[in-house]
Specification:
- The protein has 365 residues and is of the alpha+beta class.
- Helices cover 17% and strands 43% of the residues.
- The chain contains seven helices and 26 strands.
- The strands form four sheets. A nine-stranded antiparallel β-sheet has the order 14-11-12-13-26-25-24-18-22.
- α1 runs antiparallel to α2.
Length: 365
């Protein structure tokens, strides 16, 4: 193999595919990144058998070939050569010579035949969605993914596909996040994609109206974005029936300016970080929303004007859960729906049903 390419393109490619290298290595060759040179294209790929990323860049391929290089080392090394033209040559000892600016380095490589092949995904079942909408489906729910291992399926996001609409759902036992978007599809499927895979897919996409197709195989998905391809396994197991968790009716409604409640809650919640009480009390009464926190060093109370209907209520929450739901939305106003002080709060838009956030209350003793 003998290849000449630009350092900036090679560095960006290594950085992209290196995200598929796991920190928990059981097979040493999975620490590597496979590089293949053919038809003036250099293809880089990495996998931990659960997440696979492939990236293609243009190159001057003088001699075709392939090898597997130590992933983390080569990524850091080439990053420092971003402004150089780089020549890669593989010798008969499976060593990669890297030439740049009159210098030469030598790296021992792995046997490419021992590296797992990039999985083939069937492309009959798929849906189309704008890159912007898919990024939204991820960013507005992923913070609610469970972090513990008690129910592994909750460490991913559910994507419910039906009637040209897709719903993304994440929950961790304390809160639930749900977002809906339109898609082009005639399939009906429910899949759960791991959080780590979604983070990498989201980074690959642009904030644009360009359509991408997401292909669904038996237990994996693939996103093909031209020069970059990501394949992720799907999580197995039964996801919680989220529709049963969401209340059908409410007794109290509060329409409030999102920026005002967010700012007030940021200030009031400061005491929850220094005292033993990790909650903020919400009191809804007479077109006001009162926020209160107490600790050993003092107390903070703020009042926000709001449009309230229904019964007065006093209820408490972990403020972080409310704030995280507010921060990912740009709506000027939100509607907060309540029943009793022991029932969850539900945050929705004032019009439509694009998103829904459900937060369990904290019991006040």
């Amino acid at each position: 193999m003998l290849v000449v390419c630009q350092g900036i393109e090679l560095s960006e490619a290594f950085l992209r595919v290196s995200k598929a290298i796991s920190n928990k290595i059981t097979n040493p060759i999975l620490e590597g990144i496979k590089i293949s040179a053919e038809d003036n294209i250099l293809t880089l790929s990495a996998t931990d058998t659960e997440l696979s990323i492939e990236k293609k860049i243009k190159a001057d391929v003088k001699i075709e070939g392939e090898t597997v290089v130590p992933g983390k080392f080569i990524t850091e090394f080439v990053k420092k050569l971003a402004n150089s033209e780089i020549e890669l040559e593989l010798n008969e000892k499976n060593q990669l010579l890297i030439r740049y600016e009159g210098n030469e380095s030598l790296i021992q490589c792995y046997n490419a035949k021992e590296y797992p092949g990039f999985r083939k995904i069937k492309t009959e079942s798929y849906f189309g969605i704008t890159q912007r909408d898919f990024k939204t489906l991820v960013s507005k729910v992923i913070f609610s993914v469970a972090l513990d291992d008690s129910r592994p399926v909750l460490k991913g996001v559910l994507f419910d596909i039906c009637n040209n609409e897709i719903t993304s759902v994440a929950l961790d036992g304390y809160r639930l996040a749900k977002v809906q978007k339109k898609i082009t599809s005639n399939i009906k499927k429910s899949i759960v994609i791991p959080q780590r895979s979604l983070n990498e897919i989201s980074k690959m996409l642009e904030d644009s109206e360009d359509i991408i197709n997401i292909y669904i195989d038996e237990n994996a998905i693939m996103i093909d974005n031209g020069d970059t391809k990501i394949i992720s396994r799907l999580l197995e197991g039964d996801f919680i029936n989220y529709k049963q968790i969401i209340p059908a009716n409410y007794e109290t409604f509060v329409i409030v300016n999102k920026a005002q409640i967010e700012d007030a809650l940021e200030r009031v919640s400061l005491l929850t970080k220094v005292g033993q009480n990790n909650f903020v009390k919400f009191e809804i009464k007479e077109n006001n929303l009162n926020l209160t926190s107490n600790s050993e060093i003092g107390n903070i109370k703020e009042t926000i004007s709001a449009n309230t209907t229904g019964k007065d209520i006093v209820i408490a929450f972990n403020p972080r859960f409310i704030l995280e739901a507010l921060r990912v939305n740009s709506n000027e106003f939100v509607k907060m729906c309540y029943n009793k002080s022991t029932n969850p709060c539900v945050i929705v838009p004032t019009e439509g049903d694009e998103f829904l956030y459900l937060i369990l209350p904290v019991r006040i003793i």
